[in-house]
Predict the 3D structure of the following.
Amino acid sequence: MSGAQTKLAEHPVVVVIGVIAVIIGALAAGKDLFASEDPPPRASESVPAVSRPVSPPDGDGGATATPSPVRTRTVSPEAESTPETSEPEGPLPESRVPLPGAATVPSSKPAPPSHTGPLIVRIDMGTTGKIGPNTWRARANPGANTVVEDAGGQLDTGCYVEWTLKRGSEVVHLARNGRCRPPGITLFNFEDNLREVGSYTLTADITTDWSQTGSKTIAFEVVPG
């Protein structure tokens, strides 16, 4: 054993005091260390915002700013093929079916006929005093009417007749009518102009309001009766 160790063994009280002094000094140093550190922030205190470095503008020679990462979204093929539809707001409009148009009712009034084309004229003599084909008894009064037609049909009003009765070349009787075919009326009356025997002709000359003209002549015999 060395001389120093012999001396410490001989004075144990001094050793204990030295150990206690070392422990007290260590505790004081630890207290000062904990007192110098900042206390942790409380839950109610706001955390200070961290300022981000501002990228220098182009041309200032500063460091190039790191671009922020781009976020991508993965879309499934079903979502790409299916268009997005938005639900309409409010009630849907009612679909209206157009009503069929009213049927056109034809006018009950017939259209006026078209008076064109040549006139077709016929003379109908009565049968009073008729005793053979184209032969009448003297002093008979059979009467005569006309039938006049054009492209629009048979004419009546707007159609005019001028009658000429001849025996041989002699004019026996003249007459006029303001219609071509009035119903129930005899247009031409012979009166007593067939009292003499001979060959006769009856002519009907027709004119119309539509500038149409026509004519018809029939021949017959008058014999003693």
About this structure: Residues 12-36 form the longest helix (25 residues).
